[in-house]
Write a structure and sequence with these properties.
heterodimer, A: mainly alpha, B: alpha/beta, Rossmann fold, 2 domains, 13 strands, about 40% helix, binds adenosine-5'-triphosphate, binds magnesium ion, membrane (chain A), transmembrane helix (chain A), ABC transporter permease (chain A), ABC-2_transporter-like (chain A), transmembrane (chain A)
Amino acid sequence: MSLRTSLKALPTLLRIGFSEAVAYRAEMIIWVLATTMPLIMLALWSAVARGGPVGRFGQAEFTGYFLAAFCVRQMTSSWVAWLVSYEVKQGTLAMRLLRPISPLLAYATEVLAGIPLRVAIVLPVLGISVWVAGAERAVPTSLGGWGLFALGIAGAWLITFYLNVLLGTLSLFLESSQKLMEVYMVLFFVCSGYMFPVEFFPPGVRTVMEWLPFRYQMGLPVELLTGAHAAKEAWALLAAQWAWVAGLGVVSTVVWRRGLARFAAFGG
Amino acid sequence: MISVRGLRKHYQVHKRPPGLKAALRSLVHRDYTAVKAVDGISFDIQPGERVGFLGPNGAGKTTTLKVLAGLLHPSEGEVTVDGHVPRFREEAFLKKIMLVMGQKQQLLWDLPPSETFELNRAIYDVPRLQYKQTLDELVSLLELEELIGKPTRQLSLGERMKCELAAALIHRPRVLFLDEPTIGLDVSMQVTMRAFIKAYNEQTGATLILTSHYMDDVAALCPRVIVIDKGQLSYDGSLDALVQRVRPEKRVVLRLGQPVDAALLTPLGKVVSHEPGSAVLQVQQDAVNATVGRALSTLPVTDLTVENAPLEEVMSELFQEGKARRAEAAREEVPA
Ligand SMILES: Nc1ncnc2c1ncn2[C@@H]1O[C@H](COP(=O)(O)OP(=O)(O)OP(=O)(O)O)[C@@H](O)[C@H]1O
Ligand SMILES: [Mg+2]
């Protein structure tokens, strides 16, 4: 679809997506409750920190970090992999393919349209974080800091979205892509900074992490939110993140196009 | 408008015998077989035509429609729809066509149909004024007023089908593919649907292909039919000519004032049915006049009509023929 028409349709897509998100709010609350991993990790690491700080992390730092992780997860989460693979198996992807708008854009707006509701959850949590951990450990203290965070969370959202598209599209090539999605989730949990900050990895492993996409999905925006990086360092990490965004954007779109040729449009 | 040349669509399916051992084995080694859903068909359709796709279950009708709509990539052959190659899914192409499949819903499940209409307006970039006109028309023709404000999940099957069709027509497609549009509808709903589809075709000059197992749909809507059997084309032409070819005989339907003896009927023609108050005779076309004359003079006839054989029977005979022909061919292939 041409960019102009897409942009014209966007407000309506977002508005209707938002109505759908509101219709599904009960499911969303359950999902939010299911993503309490950072809170469990917070309890765990605070207990550890009671005996003395771990690296630069005392109890207050852990609080800032894991509440930020909770918020970043709310903002960047994506269920597109499951959605695509479900729609491929059910054949309902056909309905999207009949419309003159890129299905990928449609998936993206569906996820984006849910974000306002999520912000409503995130804001009080950030408030608590500021109150408990102190502002400088919870949120950026300068406008520039917020700007870097905005870039970081946008990049994180895109990487997560593209990885989801890629995983979902694999269901067009494989009988069961479920296993791969589970592997992805485990890698994400361990390598992204979701369960513990990536700086806890030993130096060698840490270098590997810098080269993998996961830490840019979670660790980086969390660090930017909690002010862990000086500007220069932040820009270097953001550059690496956006390189992943560009790379995954190209790869997932190409794989998607290839996959469509194999679509069997079950049912009817 | 539509041109199909030597179209083939073979699905690769993964064959696995039941059982755990087979399941484990299939992890390492997979056997694929090709299902020849569409196996070399060609036809042309002119703008504004209404064509019925007929054929037994599994014949390849839906598969053909999906290829025409750009959902499936053909395994072989050339397909164009108004100059577009469907599988490229160009924007201009997608704005011209629509495929409506019975169960597949484009309606948003938790929102009222009016929201889906609005969404389609935006996606198809339909000007506001035209949108309003189209919608008003659809709402009054399909009697949707009561429905479009209720969440889709609360609608009955038939109500949903009506809204589904309305959503599909918001952008006024020039080419409409309908896969069993009346399935599961009550009799009066079927009549409404048929009348509506016909009116849409006549008013907009849109080209229409529909599949249906209800012969009333076909009789009411499709001057031309294409019969597909096991992925191959077995008839393409007018519905009348098809009936003439398969069942040239006519039926003389008699209402009788009082019961008559079977012996009186048999000399007149082949007795299809015989009840106390009525009888149906099947006779060659050139014998119709004679039979009618004799019936009127020898029987207590109160009413008499001459009809074609019911379409259902014609189709069933055609499908049986195809089956017999294939069995014959299979026997010849086996060396004695
Ligand atoms: N996605 C698929 N994968 C494998 N085989 C398929 C697939 N879709 C259809 N088939 C097979 O292809 C053949 C044609 O199917 P199709 O759906 O086109 O039939 P149809 O003429 O629409 O039948 P019906 O009247 O029952 O709707 C059938 O034998 C079916 O089993
Ligand atoms: Mg079918």
